[in-house]
Design goal:
With 93 residues, this protein is mostly beta strands. It has one domain. It is 5% helix and 39% strand. The strands form three sheets. Strands 3-6-7-8 form a four-stranded antiparallel beta sheet, with no helix packed on it. Strands 4-5-9 form a three-stranded mixed beta sheet, with no helix packed on it. Strands 1-2 form a two-stranded antiparallel sheet.
Length: 93
């Protein structure tokens, strides 16, 4: 477990962790590619942890996604369970 900083009244923050705003398309940029997160988290502030070789994305205390690095840069990596039946368009059908 990596070292962390704990501020009074706040959740512990890992040193290799950064807070990011998710894109409206429910994805986060990592190592030159875009990686999906569950649609309900689009536009929210998340915590991004680079665990090398994988990355973990958390919203509040919940782990919402784990991604392996993309084989090439400039890729869009989408996990199907992040978007099936949870997008605003799918819910109107």
């Amino acid at each position: 477990m990596p070292p962390y900083i704990h501020l009074a009244g706040a959740l512990p923050i890992h040193i290799d962790e950064e807070q990011r705003a998710l894109a409206r398309g429910a994805s986060v940029s990592w190592n030159g590619s875009w990686h999906s997160v569950p649609w309900p988290n689009a536009g929210k502030m998340i915590r991004f942890r680079n665990h090398r070789p994988s990355a973990e994305i958390r919203y509040a205390t919940e782990r919402t996604a784990v991604h392996a690095p993309s084989p090439r840069r400039q890729q869009i990596v989408t996990l199907s369970h992040h978007h099936i039946c949870s997008t605003p368009i799918a819910s109107r059908a």
